[in-house]
Each structure stands twice: as structure tokens, then as C-alpha cells.
């Protein structure tokens, strides 16, 4: 205002003082220009100092970063050198230990060779004695069989001559004439190595007998039983040269021809033919299976009851299973809104059995189970089919047992039934019946093996292992474990090692330790089978002990036979290994050099690609500068002294000589806010700066003040 007043006064008196006024104005303008020039120089100097300080700081950071990189590289090289020295030291110690162990091993080998030479002579003598004994026993068995077969042929020819007798034809209980069977076996004796076993079954025939439980729904099951046994006999085909079986089926002339009388008549005519007759009866609540038959030249046939099973133990578990399945399905039907009458109609006997099952479960819950018979309804055909299936399983097992016994006794053929047991036993309806059948099977085979052990003991250990392997599929592993123990005891007995351990009643571990002490190289096959059985019953922890013992025996045997040659081969092998190791080391070194070269090439390619990218960016930047255009024009009422852009590139701040600071949206050019606040002595805003986080603004005025603004 003072200045405006002065201008007015000058204008008023201009006419009086024109020359003096011109001079004063020129001086004033020069003074103003000098001040502005000084301010401009000072601003340029400050900007230069700021840029110089920025370059200095950047240089310091770059130098510090390079120094850190160098220190890290130096530390890495030092660590690598330490590891290399440690590795070389370990390799030297390992080589030194290898040489020492090799010397000790060679010394121990020589000592062991001398000891084994002495033991080997004793073992060779024992093995020779055992082989001679087995050979003698085998010759005696072959002579016995040849004699038996010759006598059987004479007896068969006599039976053929008598088969046309009218009395024999009238009393013979089979539909197939006796002469047909006898002529067939004459051909078998001429062409077969092993004479087939004749198998005949006699299913239960309720229509000819009066039983109290006939009203329970038992009907004729002959067809089903005959088919099952016929299907099983495919494993013993008539055309086989090892285990031939002739299956005659239920070939009875009359269903009333059963029992001991029928067996005696058959034996009178077919005494020269090995025969097995299986007869099953339903006696009240019991199923009874009788086994009859004879071997060649047997004068009296045997007829005995071998199995008695309450039929309720067979059918009631099945009835419970069907009732439980119906209960689950019944709940689904109830959820769909089916009526009780509809459920009773659809459930049939399963509905009634469900009521009985729930009654049984309630009694069991209150501790009253087993006090009475719950009388499940088992009259439907599906229960008869289940009964027929169980009878079929029993018949198949008995046929397999008798066929195995016959062919083993006459031809040393290993039993086939142990291979088939898992498939048969899994169809048994209850665990108690399963255990009963397994007990009968094991007892039968043990009796057979004990009888055979007198004249063919060398076969028994393997046979026990075969039986153990078949029993290993059962939940109760004790059956298989016992057979393994029996096998080992017989094996040790053959080597005169069993007497010292029988008194102590050893367990499996003690038996296996005894086995390892009596091993020879020829026992490898037996040990492999033994290991398979141990793995099958979950005793695989013992396999390593046997494997190590066998390997030790094999190694000892080889050293005993070819000690000198083995040492030469060992030296040659060590040289080859050393040469191979050196070759591998050289190959690894070459691979490492190649990898380093590839890394250097890759680093060089990276630098070239980075330089190319920098060049392209510079070209692009220059192109953009050449093609630059004005996007937006912003302004103040006075001149703009300074500008600043936020780090995120979204905000532009400008300071002007009109004493204002304006905040703009950089992308749209829209004015966001105007700040005023420097003192009235300040004519203009000289400089601006924004903090790195974009939240703080600093301004400087020409009055020497600095103001800090919070940008929100």
C-alpha cells in the first residue's frame, strides 16, 4: 500500500520532476534485477549442492554394497577352502582305515580258511552219510511200490474175470457197472505213472429217511454237492501224471444204498482200486460226515465218522447276517414311508429272524445269552444253498486230504490242498467252524508226515513249510507258526542237532539260532522257503539273521574252495574299483568345470541381455522425449518457482510467487487443494519437497521460513 501511494504521488508531481523521476526509476529497476539475479544464483547453487550431495550419497551406497559383496565372496571362498580341507582329511582317514581293515580281513580270512578246512571235512562226512542213508531209503521205497503195483495188477485181472458174475452185477451198488471201472483201471495201470484215486460221494437224502428237522426246510442237495466236488477235482485232473483222481460222483444205483454195507460190497469188487467214499448224513440237529475207503491190497476197508457239525452253527450265523442286512435295508424303507405290513411282506423270514436277532441281542446285553435256542427260520432255499456250500467245502477238503495222502504215499508227490486252503476256508460261515476244519486238516497232515518220516524223512521239512504257508492266511497265526517249528525240528533232527534242544523245549528264536549254526550251502532252497513262511506270519525280523547266516556259509564255502583265486580276484577287483573311482572323480571334475563354464557363459549372457535392455530403454526414453506432447496445462496467478511430485506419481505440488501452494491430481490435472500460510513478509514460495512416504510436504519462502505440511 505504501508503494502504491508512492506511485500515486510520483504520478501527481511527474510534471514537475520528470528528469529526476526517470533516473530514480532506472536505479530502482536495476536494484530489483540485481536482487532477482542473486536469488536465482542462490537457488541454482542450492540445487547444485543438493544434486551433488545425492551423487555423493549414491556413490557411498554403491561403494558400500560392492564392499559387502566382496566380503561375502571372500567369506564363501574361505568356507569352501575349509570344507575342501576337511573333506580331503576325511578321505585320507577313510583310505587309511580301508587299508587297515583290508589287512585285518585278509589275516582273518586266512585264519578262517584253516578253521573251515577242518570243519568242512567233518560236514562232508556227515553229508555223505546222510545222502547214503536217504538213497538207501529211497531204493527201499521204490521196491515196495513196485511190488505193491505188481500185486495190484494181478488182483485187478482177477477182479475183471469175476466182474461178469450175475451175483456181483445184482449187488453192485453203483450205476456204472463194475466191469467198466475195472477195465478203466486196467488201462490206467498200463499207461499212467500214478494210479488214479477213485472218489465217490454219498450226499444226504432226506426223502428216504425220517428226521425231526425235516420241517426246517432241508431238501435234496445232491446236485449242488456233486457239482462242487466235481469243480474241485479239476485241481486233481484224471489226465494228470502227478495227482490223477477219477471222480465218480453220487453214482449210486439206489439212494438207500449207504453206510458200511455199501462200502463192504464196493470193496469186495474194487479192492484192487484205491477208493475213497464220502458219506454225509443229517441226524437231528447234527451233520455227520463219514469217510470210507481203502488203498491197493488193503484187505479190510475203513469206515469212520470224521466230522460232526451242528447244522445250526452253519445256518444260524448266516441267518443273523441276513437279518442284519435286512435291518439296514428296512430302515431305508421306513424312511421312504413304507408301511409295516409292506415290510413284513417283503422281509419274509428275514423279518422274523430280525425279531429273533433283536431278542438275542437284548439277552446278550443283560447277560442272558446262550440259555435257550432262538430257533431262527432257515427254511428258505438260500439257507439250503448255504448248507450245501458248507458241505461242499467239507467234502472238497476231505477229497484233497485223501488224494494228497494217497499220492504222497505212493509217489512222493507234494500235497496240493495247502495251496487251495485259503480259497476254501474264506467261504466258511463262522470262525468257530473255520478253526474246527483247520484243526482237522493240520492233524491229518501231521499224522501223514509222521508216518512218512520213518522212511522218507528228507521230504518232511519242506512239507511242513508248505502247510504253514497255506495256514498263514488265517487270522490265527499260531497254526502256521507251529508248522514252521515242526519243520525246523525235523530239519535239525536230520542233521543230528535236535537232541540238545528238545530238553529245553525251545521257541522259534532258539530254533532259528540252531538252524544258523547247522547251515550248509546246500540248504539255500529250504532257507528261502523258510524265509517266505516267516514273512507270511509277520516274523520277518528273523529273516535277516537267516540271510546273514546263509551268506556267511556261502562265503566260507567259496573261500574254502578257491581261497587263492579269490584273493587274486580281490586284488584285481580293488584295482578296477580304484581305476573306476579315479575315472569317476575325473568325470566329476570335468562336469564341475563344464558347469562353471556354463555358469560363466550364462552370467555373460545375462549381462549382455541386461545391457541390451538398458539400451532399448534408453532408446525408448529418447523416443518418448522426441515425441513428447502437452497433456495438461496448470498454473498460478503468478510465476511458478518450484514443483514436486509424490513418490507414487499421483500428486503434483507447485509453489508460486502469489504466496500459494497448490496440490494437483497429476493424472487428471484437477486442483485438489490450495495451501496458504507463509508470513505476510514473504512474497513468494521458493522451494518444495515431498517425503518418501508421500504424507509430508515441506515448503520454503523468501522470508527465510520453512513450513511443514501434512498431506492427507
From TrEMBL:
What is the top EC class of this enzyme, as a single word? transferase
Give the E.C. number(s). Answer: 2.7.11.17
Query: Which ranges form a coiled coil?
Result: 100-146, 550-628
Q: Which Pfam families does the entry link to? A: WD40
**UniProtKB keywords:** Coiled coil, Kinase, Repeat, Transferase, WD repeat
PANTHER family for the chain: WD REPEAT DOMAIN 5B, WD40 REPEAT PROTEIN
WD repeats sit at 633-674, 678-712
Write the protein's name. WD40 repeat-containing serine/threonine kinase
- One Gene Ontology MF term: calcium/calmodulin-dependent protein kinase activity
The organism's place on the tree of life at top rank: Bacteria
Origin organism of this chain? Planktothrix agardhii (strain NIVA-CYA 126/8)
Amino acid at each position: 500500500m505504501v508503494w502504491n501511494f508512492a506511485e500515486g504521488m510520483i504520478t501527481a508531481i511527474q510534471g514537475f520532476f520528470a528528469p529526476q523521476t526517470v533516473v530514480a526509476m532506472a536505479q530502482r529497476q536495476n536494484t530489483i534485477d540485481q536482487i532477482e539475479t542473486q536469488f536465482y544464483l542462490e537457488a541454482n547453487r542450492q540445487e547444485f549442492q543438493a544434486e551433488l550431495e545425492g551423487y555423493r550419497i549414491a556413490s557411498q551406497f554403491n561403494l558400500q554394497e560392492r564392499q559387502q559383496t566382496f566380503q561375502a565372496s571372500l567369506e564363501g571362498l574361505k568356507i569352501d577352502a575349509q570344507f575342501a580341507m576337511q573333506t580331503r582329511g576325511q578321505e585320507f582317514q577313510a583310505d587309511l582305515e580301508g587299508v587297515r581293515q583290508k589287512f585285518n580281513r585278509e589275516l582273518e580270512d586266512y585264519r578262517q580258511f584253516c578253521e573251515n578246512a577242518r570243519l568242512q571235512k567233518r560236514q562232508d562226512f556227515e553229508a555223505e552219510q546222510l545222502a547214503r542213508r536217504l538213497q538207501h531209503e529211497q531204493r527201499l521205497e521204490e521196491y515196495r511200490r513196485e511190488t505193491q503195483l505188481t500185486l495190484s495188477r494181478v488182483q485187478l485181472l482177477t477182479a475183471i474175470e469175476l466182474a461178469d458174475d450175475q451175483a456181483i452185477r445184482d449187488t453192485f451198488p453203483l450205476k456204472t457197472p463194475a466191469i467198466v471201472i475195472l477195465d478203466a483201471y486196467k488201462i490206467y495201470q498200463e499207461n499212467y505213472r500214478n494210479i488214479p484215486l477213485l472218489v465217490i460221494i454219498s450226499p444226504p437224502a432226506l426223502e428216504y429217511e425220517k428226521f425231526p428237522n425235516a420241517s426246517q426246510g432241508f431238501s435234496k442237495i445232491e446236485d449242488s454237492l456233486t457239482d462242487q466236488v466235481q469243480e474241485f477235482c479239476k485241481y486233481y485232473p484224471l489226465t494228470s501224471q502227478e495227482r490223477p483222481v477219477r471222480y465218480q460222483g453220487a453214482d449210486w444205483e439206489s439212494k438207500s444204498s449207504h453206510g458200511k454195507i455199501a462200502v463192504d460190497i464196493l470193496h469186495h469188487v474194487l479192492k484192487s482200486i484205491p477208493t475213497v467214499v464220502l458219506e454225509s448224513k443229517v441226524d437231528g440237529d447234527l451233520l455227520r460226515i463219514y469217510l470210507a475207503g481203502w488203498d491197493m491190497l488193503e484187505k479190510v476197508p475203513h469206515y469212520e465218522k470224521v466230522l460232526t457239525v451242528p447244522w445250526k452253527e452253519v445256518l444260524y450265523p448266516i441267518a443273523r447276517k441276513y437279518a442284519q442286512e435286512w435291518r439296514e435295508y428296512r430302515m431305508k424303507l421306513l424312511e421312504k414311508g413304507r408301511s409295516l405290513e409292506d415290510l413284513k411282506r417283503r422281509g419274509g423270514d428275514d423279518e422274523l429272524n430280525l425279531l429273533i436277532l433283536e431278542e438275542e441281542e437284548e439277552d446278550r446285553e443283560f447277560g442272558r445269552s446262550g440259555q435257550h435256542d432262538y430257533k431262527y427260520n432257515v427254511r428258505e432255499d438260500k439257507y439250503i444253498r448255504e448248507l450245501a456250500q458248507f458241505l461242499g467245502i467239507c467234502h472238497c477238503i476231505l477229497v484233497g486230504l485223501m488224494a494228497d495222502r494217497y499220492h504222497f504215499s505212493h509217489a512222493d508227490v507234494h500235497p496240493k490242498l495247502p495251496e487251495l486252503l485259503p480259497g476254501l476256508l474264506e467261504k466258511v460261515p463262522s470262525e468257530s467252524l473255520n478253526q474246527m476244519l483247520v484243526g482237522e486238516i493240520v492233524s491229518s497232515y501231521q499224522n501223514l508226515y509222521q508216518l512218512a518220516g520213518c522212511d522218507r524223512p528228507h521230504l518232511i521239512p519242506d512239507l511242513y513249510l508248505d502247510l504253514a504257508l497255506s495256514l498263514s492266511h488265517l487270522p490265527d497265526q499260531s497254526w502256521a507258526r507251529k508248522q514252521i517249528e515242526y519243520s525246523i525240528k525235523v530239519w535239525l533232527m536230520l542233521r543230528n542237532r535236535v537232541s540238545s534242544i528238545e530238553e529245553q523245549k525251545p521257541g522259534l528264536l532258539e530254533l532259528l539260532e540252531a538252524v544258523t549254526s547247522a547251515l550248509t550251502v546246500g540248504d539255500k532252497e529250504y532257507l528261502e522257503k523258510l524265509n517266505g513262511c516267516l514273512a507270511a506270519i509277520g516274523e520277518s525280523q528273523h529273516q535277516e539273521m537267516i540271510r546273514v547266516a546263509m551268506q556267511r556259509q556261502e562265503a566260507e564255502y567259496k573261500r574254502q574252495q578257491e581261497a587263492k583265486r579269490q584273493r587274486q580276484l580281490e586284488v584285481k577287483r580293488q584295482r578296477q574299483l580304484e581305476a573306476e573311482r579315479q575315472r569317476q572323480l575325473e568325470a566329476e571334475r570335468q562336469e564341475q568345470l563344464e558347469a562353471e563354464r556354463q555358469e560363466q557363459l550364462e552370467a555373460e549372457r545375462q549381462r549382455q541381455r541386461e545391457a541390451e535392455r538398458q539400451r532399448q530403454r534408453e532408446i525408448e526414453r529418447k523416443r518418448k522425449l522426441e515425441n513428447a506432447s502437452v497433456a495438461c496445462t496448470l498454473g498460478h496467478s503468478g510465476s511458478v518457482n518450484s514443483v514436486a511430485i509424490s513418490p507414487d506419481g499421483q500428486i503434483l505440488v507447485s509453489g508460486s510467487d502469489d504466496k500459494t501452494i497448490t496440490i494437483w491430481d497429476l493424472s487428471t490435472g484437477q486442483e485438489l487443494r490450495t495451501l496458504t500460510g507463509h508470513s505476510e513478509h514473504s512474497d513468494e514460495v521458493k522451494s518444495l519437497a515431498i517425503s518418501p512416504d508421500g504424507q509430508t510436504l515441506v515448503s520454503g519462502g523468501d522470508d527465510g521460513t520453512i513450513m511443514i505440511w501434512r498431506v492427507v
